[in-house]
Amino acid sequence: MSTTEAMTTSEGQEAxxxxxxxxxxVNPALRRTVESLPGxxxxxxxxxxxxxxxxxxxxxGSTGKAIRPxxxxxxxxxxxxxxAAGGGLAGGGVAGxxxxxxxxxxxxxxxxxxxxxxxHDDVIDKDVRRRGRPTAWTVFGTPDAxxxxxxxxxxxxxxxxxxxxxxxxxxSARLAACIVELCAGQQADCAFEQRxxxxxxxxxxxxxAKTGALLGCxxxxxxxxxxxxxxxxxxxxxxGREAGxxxxxxxxxxxxxxxxxxxxxxxxxxxxxxxKSLPVVAALTSGTxxxxxxxxxxxxxxxxxxxxxxxxxxERAGGRDWAQAHAADRMGxxxxxLSRAVxxxxxxxxxxxxxxxxxxxxx
Length: 363
Known about the structure:
The chain has 363 residues and is mainly alpha-helical. It has helices spanning 3-34, 39-48, 67-78, 102-125, 136-140, 142-161, 168-194, 200-225, 230-257, 260-263, 269-272, 278-284, 289-298, 304-316, 319-341, 349-360, and strands at 89-90, 99-100, 129-130, 133-134. The strands form 2 sheets. The chain has a two-stranded antiparallel sheet. A two-stranded antiparallel sheet has the order 3-4.
């Protein structure tokens, strides 16, 4: 094994430990908060998070990777904000009884906001599988899935608004602004599907808003709860945004070449839906014969055979190589931003491990 491979393996193991620790720390408060929802919304939310089956019986739970709440906690730790984890709730409240750290509460809020977007995205994209199970809208209907997503977003803002931590007001305002930006990115993504052509710059702007904004907000909230100053908070936000764009680039690659056994979605699902993801737009704007072939395929309905041809065309047009190289470039920029907030990057090992994870993952 080479030194680079050893480092990658080490960082991957560190990220895995951080994500598992985050789930152990955040999930109890997350579940208590979700269980505060009334009636049918609670049932939809518990199913969406994998805690219940369709009939309401207990399930093992599959709450996702927990990347965003992990970023909140890691950012707070990197800025020596461990003391902030002892603040927040002191009994009662939406997140449950007992002492719940303020930074944990912020992590729960970010995860609720993320899952608000997932419930809505599944409806918009007509996705029928998530985390290896039927999506909530296919089980409970579109209205209940949308309304439950709305309620999750309200819960996220309520958690921060009711938090006595000094940073809660700034955190709440920042999360609200982030969601508006994220919705604008989602709207642009939907609009692109109806347009015959989209520029790469437009696509990058959309991806930054749709994915980078929330990862940036997660890091910024961790910094706020650590008591960081405005410059450090902004640098953390910028780090998360750059890492988020790298994340989206890798996610787009997985959407084309991911293993359905790992993704829970059909192979080439994004191509079948003719989504103008970043590798696709890079290929479409490449000026190559393969790019023209891809454009012709995207001009009409596609079947399974067409999906395979489209994937091959994206690769031959350079879309796959461009996305991989651009993800690496964005991670380089992310590290530069991180060094503004944490000059001694040794103190930011958790954030770096998570950043490495999102750009090296294959599922």
